[in-house]
Amino acid sequence: SWSAVPAGPPDPILGVTEAFKADKDPRKINLGVGAYRDENGKPYILGSVKKAEELLTSSKPDKEYLPITGLPEFTKKAALLAYGADSEPLKQGAVAVTQSISGTGALRIGGAFLARHYPHSKVIYLPVPSWGNHTPIFRDSGLEVRGYRYFDKKTVGLDFEGLKADLLAAPEQAIVLLHACAHNPTGIDPTPEQWQIISDIVKERKLFPFFDMAYQGFASGSTSQDAFAVRHFVSQGHQIALAQSFAKNMGLYGERVGAFSLTTADPEEKARVDSQLKIIIRPMYSNPPLHGARIANAILGDKALYSQWEGEVKGMADRIISMREKLYSTLTHDLKTPGEWGHIKNQIGMFSFTGLTPPQTKALAEKAHVYMTGDGRISMAGLNSSNIEYFAESVNAAVRG
Ligand code: PLP
Ligand code: TYF
């Protein structure tokens, strides 16, 4: 039956982990996948998550199915975390929200909803570059994927002129995907002033903004600061779609906790949208997993756990920032590595887009056992005080050739 099925390529990001696992050298470093590691290079279970799990275990909850759109207490709190207590649509009861299989599932539900119910356009604009999974997610949802300029190779910064020109030239009412903060893979975000200009252009062209917020709290250490773009757009009267993930900010990767929401005109419209979200989800997976949503709900709903969590998110963000500073100073001051490395310090979130070329990343893997994606992206969280000097020396050697 399957003789005509061609072998597909490995996932460009997850494939890096395979290569890393096969390497037996003790010095090996995996900077491929964007998953937080602690100072000892180990996966980190947040203390707030452990406590929430203990509370859950002792309350002996049942294992019944959740409703199609998930745990209602959780989705309510997730929306509050993203939109903020001052959000008009939230106060009016006009935000339709469903639990999702983490951020990926939220994007997929959003793609499917827009493909079916957004009457004005089937075109979605993604930043170039964007997270590698965005294109297949939206293509498989039935949308036509196009790009807008985002990254400027020359400055290793935001191509804001290109971005503005491309959004101004987009057909009216097209969908535009925006990374809410901590852009993956570049680590480059618009400034608040630039976000205000983007919001004006989106309004002028009547574009439909779809925010992907996979790193709330991870960029600055503050969940409200990282929600600036989302809240600004909503305050300007935009209706938005929003994908949220709790993989990174709560370290709940494999638990698959997320939410998808749409702001609507009023509670009556929200109810109609809710009904169609259910119709999309029911045949896909019927209802979402229970455990992770209960953990997130416990943390978001308890003052002490919430403030512990806030401290832990900030701890992760701060450790990444300290690794940026250490890497920058080792490359520039200690090793005098040729080139400009200021972007390593200035970039935001989980990743640094180093500017290393594909031959350099290949040499790093083969000669130094250092693994990253072929585009030169490194997951900053893979660095720690035990491996950062070896990493910097390896980069130095690769750059000098
Ligand atoms: N969106 C972006 C930009 C991401 O970087 C990620 C994870 O790396 C996701 C969405 C979704 O991840 P998950 O499905 O694990 O929440
Ligand atoms: O490193 C990245 O950009 C992501 C990480 O189910 C990731 O691709 C890995 C697995 C997954 C979702 C995201």
From TrEMBL:
Domain of life the protein comes from: Eukaryota
Cofactors that this protein relies on: pyridoxal 5'-phosphate
Domain Aminotransferase class I/classII large: 27-394
Keywords annotated in UniProt: Aminotransferase, Pyridoxal phosphate, Transferase
Catalytic activity: L-aspartate + 2-oxoglutarate = oxaloacetate + L-glutamate
GO biological process terms held by the UniProt record: L-aspartate catabolic process
EC number from the UniProt entry: 2.6.1.1
CC annotations in GO: mitochondrion
GO molecular function annotation: L-aspartate:2-oxoglutarate aminotransferase activity; pyridoxal phosphate binding
Enzyme class: transferase
Record keyword Ribonucleoprotein present: no
Keyword Nucleus on entry: no
Pfam families, A to Z: Aminotran_1_2
CDD domains: AAT_like
Subunit structure of this chain's protein: Homodimer.
Misc. remarks from the entry: In eukaryotes there are cytoplasmic, mitochondrial and chloroplastic isozymes.
Family: Belongs to the class-I pyridoxal-phosphate-dependent aminotransferase family.
Protein name: Aspartate aminotransferase
